[in-house]
Design brief:
The protein is built from twelve helices and eleven strands. It is of the alpha/beta class. The chain folds into three domains: 47 residues, lambda repressor-like DNA-binding domains (434 Repressor (Amino-terminal Domain)); 127 residues, 3-Layer(aba) Sandwich (Rossmann fold); 131 residues, Response regulator (Rossmann fold), CATH 3.40.50.2300. Helix 7 links the parallel strand 3 and strand 4. It is globular and about 65 Å long.
Length: 345
C-alpha cells in the first residue's frame, strides 16, 4: 500500500480511470457524478490513506488524534451476531484501522446476569488491557448499566439512558419514523398499521413514541392503542402472523409501517396470503438497515448503521485525547427512500 505522502489525487484518478477534477469533486462532496462513482472514489481514497486538507483540518478541529498517534487496541461488546451488529463492527473497525488502531469484537455470554459475573468475564478476556470499550445496541439494559460503570473510556452505539455519562452515537430511529410517516401522509395514507414490538429495548420504545407523535401532528384525536396494532412479541410466529393477518383483513388500514428490521418481509407474506397486492391494495414501509434481498424496492428510511460505527471510533479517540470534554450524543439522520411499495391514494 502506498504511504500517505505518496498518494495524490492523480494516484486515485489513475487507479479509477477518472479525471483529477472528478476525484477532487467526489472527495469534497460536490455534484456532477453518480453516487456510485462518488462512493468508489471515497472508498479508494480511504483504503490508500488519502485525506484532503479539509479532512485533516476537521480532525484537528474535533481534537481527534491522527494516524501518527500511538497504536491502541479496543474491544467491542456485542449481544449477538445480528446483521446490524456486523455493520456496526465494520464501521468501527474501518475507521480505527485508518487511524492505526485495532478492534476486537467480543460476544457477551447470554447467561451473564450479575455484576460479579460480568467482572469475572471481563477479567477473563483481559478487558483491563484494552484502551476502551464500544458497547453495541440491544445489550440487556442491566448489563449495559454495569458496563457503563467501568472506569475506562467507553462509547455507546445506541440511545443512552437518561442519566448515562457516556459518549454515544446512534442511527436516529425516531427521525426515521417521522420521515416515514411524513412520506405516508404525503401519499394520502391516514390509517397506518404499526408492526413491531414496543418493548423491551429503548429503541423499540422510542419508535412507538415517535409514531404516536407523528399521528398527533397529523391531527389524530387520540393516542394510538397498542392493541389495535401488531406490537406483541413475535416469538410465537404463528400467533403473531394470525394477528397481523387479522388486522390486514379488516380493511381498516391502507398502509403498513414495519418499525423493526426483519418484519417487512413477514408483512409482505401476510398480505400475499390474503390476496392483497403491495402496493395496489396496501402500501408497505419498512425499517431495514440495508437493502432487503427479497424486497429490493422496499420504501424505507436510510439508517446509517455502519456510519454510526465510524463516528463511534472518532468519539472514542476524541475522548481519550480530551478526557475533560463534555459528553456528546450524536444522531445520524438519513433521507427517505421512496421505493416501489408505497402508492399514492
Amino acid at each position: 500500500m502506498p504511504s500517505k505522502k505518496a498518494v495524490t489525487l492523480q494516484t486515485i484518478a489513475d487507479e479509477l480511470n477518472l479525471t483529477i477534477h472528478t476525484v477532487s469533486k467526489a472527495l469534497r462532496g460536490l455534484p456532477g457524478m453518480s453516487e456510485t462513482t462518488r462512493r468508489t472514489v471515497v472508498e479508494r481514497a480511504r483504503e490508500l490513506g488519502y485525506r484532503t486538507k479539509e479532512q485533516e483540518a476537521g480532525m484537528t478541529a474535533e481534537r481527534i488524534p491522527s494516524v501518527r498517534a500511538r497504536p491502541r487496541r479496543f474491544a467491542m461488546l456485542l449481544s449477538g451476531d445480528l446483521p446490524f451488529h456486523r455493520q456496526q463492527t465494520v464501521g468501527v473497525q474501518t475507521r480505527l484501522a485508518e487511524l492505526g488502531h485495532t478492534l476486537y469484537p467480543l460476544v457477551v455470554p447470554s447467561g451473564l446476569s450479575e455484576p460479579s459475573e460480568l467482572e469475572s468475564w471481563l477479567e477473563k478476556i483481559g478487558a483491563e488491557f484494552t484502551d476502551g470499550l464500544f458497547l453495541s445496541a440491544v445489550l440487556p439494559e442491566r448489563l449495559e448499566a454495569a458496563l457503563l460503570r467501568i472506569p475506562m473510556p467507553k462509547v455507546l452505539i445506541n440511545y443512552p439512558s437518561d442519566l448515562a455519562e457516556v459518549d454515544s452515537v446512534v442511527w436516529d430511529v425516531e427521525y426515521a419514523v417521522h420521515r416515514s410517516m411524513e412520506a405516508l401522509y404525503a401519499n394520502g395514507h391516514r390509517n397506518v398499521l404499526y408492526v413491531g414490538e414496543i418493548e423491551p429495548f429503548r429503541g423499540f420504545r422510542l419508535r412507538w413514541r415517535a409514531f404516536a407523535i407523528a399521528l398527533k401532528r397529523a391531527g389524530a384525536e387520540r393516542a394510538p392503542d397498542p392493541d389495535e396494532h401488531v406490537t406483541s412479541d413475535s416469538g410465537d410466529r404463528v400467533e403473531w402472523m394470525e394477528k397481523l393477518r387479522s388486522r390486514l383483513s379488516s380493511g381498516r388500514y391502507t398502509a403498513v409501517f414495519c418499525a423493526i428490521p426483519g418484519t417487512a418481509e413477514w408483512a409482505y407474506a401476510a398480505a400475499a396470503s390474503l390476496g392483497l397486492d403491495v402496493p395496489e391494495s396496501v402500501s408497505l414501509v419498512g425499517m431495514e438497515h440495508e437493502e432487503h434481498p427479497y424486497l429490493p424496492d422496499l420504501a424505507r428510511p436510510a439508517l446509517f448503521v455502519k456510519e454510526a460505527g465510524e463516528r463511534a471510533a472518532e468519539l472514542m479517540l476524541r475522548r481519550i485525547a480530551n478526557p475533560t470534554l463534555p459528553y456528546e450524543h450524536v444522531r445520524l439522520k438519513g433521507p427517505f427512500l421512496e421505493g416501489r411499495t408505497l402508492r399514492r391514494l
